[in-house]
Write a structure and sequence with these properties.
Order of helices and strands: HHHHHHHHHHHHHHH
Shape: globular
Number of helices: 15
Largest sheet: none
Radius of gyration: 19 Å
CATH topology: Growth Hormone, Chain: A
Number of strands: 0
Strand content: under 5%
Mean pLDDT: 85
Length: about 375
């Protein structure tokens, strides 16, 4: 199979699986009767292991190859969702979150490394990768929501397992590199090494890398706000799981074609740096405004604005880093970016859960959103002459 086509297919299943796991977390937590704070901890638990391992696994992909590590973890993505309805307890929920969170995020990380190596800085290829990736995030959440409404949690987790199986099959279709002799996979390789983290963190000495990682953290902050507590906000207003999935799909529909407009967006904004800053700002603003709405169409418009910002920022992040980082360090760079993502995905749900317990879900959206916008403005001020 053509390497780019195989990479597009992996993109289709990988990010959508991460989002589907995020969506099902508050739904399952609510089904188990957990408090808002505990649901926040369950959402954050998905990112604990990836926070520790992302840089190491990114470096490991440079050593043993993307395909082998991806096949190992995507097999878990197909099997672990089946265990959720079989073990309907709070402790098992948190434990499964740790393992499925690591497996799904590592699979998405591997897909990003694959496009980073194959695209060679091409906005066209990264744009199409983003298009198919966000197309998967349209179909996946919608399918999950319908299955949850029609068949209950068992149906929802069955769709999640089927999606993981699709990702497993697509990872097998990735071609092996014949020009590089890879080291055999050993259990000792799974132990993090300080040297890999030193290399990854050392990249932050480059202004472009530090700017992109900062923008990545804030971008994922908006995503984490949406994925962790948006379903609870909508559920509290009486929206069904199918409607919740549809609203996520609407945001991703807006995100999918916007990914192909990255070049035009850069021209409109004047520079790649400003284009990335403004796209992240749009996403945060749309998320912060959610508690003011109460109708489907208001939420649909907000989801569309959010999706536009998220979609157009993705190829900009890939392109900015791939132009500055050598192909042999793409794994470490992707791991560094994923670490920023997972840090946001861990901190934001935990902080929002605590705020929501004290002041309500709506107030948590407003407070966190304003803080993220203030930090983004500070990042723009610091880097506007350096990048």
């Amino acid at each position: 199979m053509n390497p780019m086509v195989a990479t597009y297919v992996c993109g289709f299943f990988s990010l959508s699986l991460v989002q589907m796991v995020a969506i099902v977390t508050p739904l399952w937590g609510n089904q188990l009767g957990l408090s808002v704070m505990l649901i926040g901890w369950a959402a954050g638990a998905r990112s604990v292991a990836p926070l520790v391992y992302s840089i190491h696994f990114g470096s490991l992909m440079d050593i043993i190859g993307v395909r082998r590590l991806m096949v190992f973890f995507t097999a878990q993505c197909a099997l672990l969702p089946i265990l959720y309805p079989l073990l309907p307890y709070g402790w098992s929920f948190l434990l499964l979150q740790l393992f499925l969170g690591l497996a799904s995020v590592t699979a998405w990380l591997a897909a990003q490394v694959a496009i980073g190596r194959n695209a060679n800085g091409s906005t066209l290829h990264t744009g199409w990768f983003s298009f198919w990736t966000t197309a998967g995030t349209v179909i996946g959440p919608l399918s999950l929501g319908v299955a949850w409404d029609k068949l209950g949690p068992t149906g929802g987790f069955s769709v999640l397992a089927a999606w993981g199986a699709g990702l497993f099959i697509s990872s097998i279709l990735l071609p092996r590199r014949r020009d590089v002799v890879r080291q055999p996979l050993r259990a000792s390789m799974l132990v993090p090494r300080f040297a890999n983290y030193a290399i990854g963190l050392g990249m932050l000495r480059r202004p472009i890398a530090l700017f992109v990682i900062s923008a990545t953290f804030l971008r994922l902050g908006a995503v984490s706000m949406l994925e962790s507590f948006y379903p609870l906000l909508l559920h509290g207003l009486g929206f069904s799981a199918s409607t919740i999935g549809m609203l996520f799909a609407i945001g991703n529909v807006a995100s999918s074609p916007s990914a192909l407009m990255a070049g035009k967006w850069v021209q409109l904004c004047g520079s790649p740096r400003r284009a990335l800053t403004l796209s992240v700002a749009l996403s945060i603003l749309a998320t912060t405004a959610l508690p003011w709405f109460d109708s489907f169409w208001q939420f649909a418009v907000a989801s569309s604005v959010f999706g536009f910002g998220i979609g157009i920022s993705m190829p900009l992040i890939f392109t900015l880093l791939s132009e500055e980082i050598s192909p042999n360090q793409q794994g470490v760079a992707a791991g560094l970016r994923a670490t920023a993502n997972r840090l946001a995905a861990f901190l934001l749900p935990v902080l929002m859960g605590g705020l929501a317990e004290l002041a309500g879900v709506g107030a948590a959206f407003w407070v966190i959103g304003v803080v993220l916008l203030m930090v983004l403005a500070s990042v723009e001020l610091v880097f506007h002459k350096r990048v």
